[in-house]
Each structure stands twice: as C-alpha cells, then as structure tokens.
Design a protein that fits this description.
The chain is of the alpha+beta class. The chain has ten helices and 14 strands. Strand 9 and strand 10 form a beta hairpin. Helix 3 runs antiparallel to helix 4 and helix 9 packs across helix 10. The structure holds aspartic acid (ASP).
C-alpha cells in the first residue's frame, strides 16, 4: 500500500520547562537529540511496518524510559523518601481503552505495565503495592533501586531534601528534563498516546500528577486527536488539559492547532500550568506547543523527521 507510509505520523517529547540554552553544551544537546531521534524512529518503524499506533507509542516511550536523560523509568526523580515512584498511562482512540499505573517502584518500563493494566486487569488504573503485585503476576521486568539512580537527580533532590519544596525535574540548577510521552496515528487511522514520568522531585504522600490520568496528561480519541502532556501536573489535572484539546475539536469544531493553542496559551497559564504538549490529529497533522522556553521533542510525518529543544 503506497500511501501507508504517507499517512502515518508520530511525535515524542522528553519534557518541557524553562530551558536555558546557555546551560546546554553541544555534547549534551547531541545526547538528548540522539535519544529523541532513536525513540521517534523506533515508533515510526512500527507504523511503517503496518503496526498499530498503540505499539508505536509504547515502543517509543520504552526508549525514553530506558535513557537516564529523562525523568521516567531509569533516571526518574527522587521522592522525599529517596525512592522512585513512577506514573504512566497509555490510551487508544478506537475503543477509548486506557491503562495506567501510579506510584510504582522498581518496574523497568511503567508504560508496558500500563498497557497490561489496559489489556489484562479489567481496570484502568492500579497504584502502589497493588500495581507492583500485578507487575509480578504479569512477569514484567523489574530492576533494583540502583538501576534507577542518577547522580544529577540525586543532586537535585539534595537541594530540597528535608524541606517541603516540590520541584519539577527541569526547574533546578543544571536543568535536566522530564516526563516523556508519545502520540501516533497508524495507517488504519487509529490514534494512541502514552506518557511516563517519575513525577516531581521531593514529592510526598504518594503524590500523583497528570501523566497517568486519562484526560489530564494523556488522551486519545480517533474522532479528534491523541495528546501527551508535560509540565506542572497539578495545573494539567485541574485543566483536564488533554481532554480539553479533544473537547475543543469535537464540540467546537476547532482545528488541532487552534485547540492546542487555547489550552496551552490561554487555559493553563492562569493555573500556573507551565509546560506543553504533543498532539496528532486523525489526519496526521502534528502540533508540538509549549508556553515555556523549550520542550524536548521529535516528530516524523510525511515531510520527514524534526528534532528540536528550544523554540
Ligand atoms: N507532569 C509531570 C507531573 O506533574 C511532570 C513533568 O511533566 O515533568 O508529574
């Protein structure tokens, strides 16, 4: 099918924030760009081979989770207790099925566990100890605490350890960035989205952000679009940000670009919602937008590959 290649589209992100171009060395930038490119290509290869949007977003997010450069899987930020509690979600736009995990520890690829929650648990979201029990039962890959350790994340935590301050991964000193996600459209017109995160540095009380919550940080609906968000999770939860993009398109008939602009630049800022999102619509148009200085992002559509960090 010659038009299979033309119609598929995929985008990934590795977090957004107040990024300082002067803090970025050429080596670091090359490393970030390299992983973003590997992730988006991995997902695109799935799509190009006739695979599903769901498989594509999972494959792309796994690459980002496996890299210590991003706040998800390996390299997840530290909680106030010095642990790593990860959140992830995956959603497909055909049957509006979704799976999510919140506050899971020692799971190598939380996005894969979220997928299993969707397909095998009969539920949408599992958390903490129960999610771990399910992970065990499903025989997903587990790693010990050392696997998740990253010196920079540890330093970030030391800066606020013992205080009540909770920080976005990317708002401290050396500025390494956050949450990861992917959105995709496959050749059959199916949309899917996935998001994975370690949340916020020094978080307490098993705080959970927007990333694993369908409609807040992650959403997909074949009628409109697929979305993955990154930023201050409390604001994205209150704005129901991902679903709001869908709603503006569905109820008001807005284009993806206009719907994303309204959510990112009008609805989120009054709620202190610094951040951004990646989106793809049912026709394969991709929008990557943010209301801060940068967002780690990459996309492949009919026009080829783009990898970018700053505006
Ligand atoms: N949205 C994530 C959270 O609040 C953080 C991030 O995007 O880096 O958990």
């Amino acid at each position: 099918m010659p038009d299979v290649q033309r119609s598929v589209a995929i985008a990934v992100h590795g977090g957004a924030g107040t990024l300082d171009p002067s803090a970025m060395t050429p080596e670091k930038e090359a490393a970030y760009r390299g992983v973003l490119s590997t992730a988006v290509r991995k997902g695109h290869a799935v799509l190009a081979g006739g695979g599903s949007a769901l498989d594509a977003v999972e494959a792309a997010v796994r690459v980002l989770e496996d890299s210590p450069l991003f706040n998800a899987g390996r390299g997840a930020v530290f909680t106030a207790d010095g642990t790593h509690e990860m959140d992830a979600a995956i959603m497909e736009g055909t049957g509006l099925r979704a799976g999510a995990v919140a506050g899971v520890q020692n799971v190598k690829n939380p996005v894969g566990l979220a997928r299993l929650v969707m397909e095998r648990s009969g539920h949408v979201m599992l958390s903490g100890r129960g999610a771990f029990e399910f992970a065990h039962q499903q025989k997903v890959a587990l790693e010990d605490d050392e696997y998740f350790f990253d010196q920079l994340r540890h330093d970030q935590w030391q800066e606020v350890r013992g205080s009540t301050e909770v920080r976005l991964d990317h708002s401290t000193g050396e500025k390494k960035f956050g949450t990861v996600g992917a959105v995709a459209l496959d050749a059959k017109g199916h949309l899917a989205a996935a998001t994975s995160t370690g949340g916020m540095t020094n978080k307490r009380w098993q705080r959970i952000g927007d990333s694993p919550v369908p409609g807040a940080g992650t959403y997909a609906n074949n009628a409109t679009c697929a979305i993955s968000c990154t930023g201050n999770g409390e604001a994205f939860l209150r704005a129901v940000a991902a679903h709001d993009v869908h709603a503006l398109m569905s109820y008001k008939g807005l284009s993806l670009e206009e719907a994303v602009r309204i959510v990112v630049h009008e609805k989120l800022p009054p709620l202190d919602g610094e951040g951004g999102l990646i989106a793809v619509d049912k026709d394969g148009r991709i929008v990557l937008d943010f209301n801060c200085t940068g967002m780690y992002r990459a996309m492949i559509d009919g026009n080829g590959e783009v990898v970018a960090i700053f505006r």
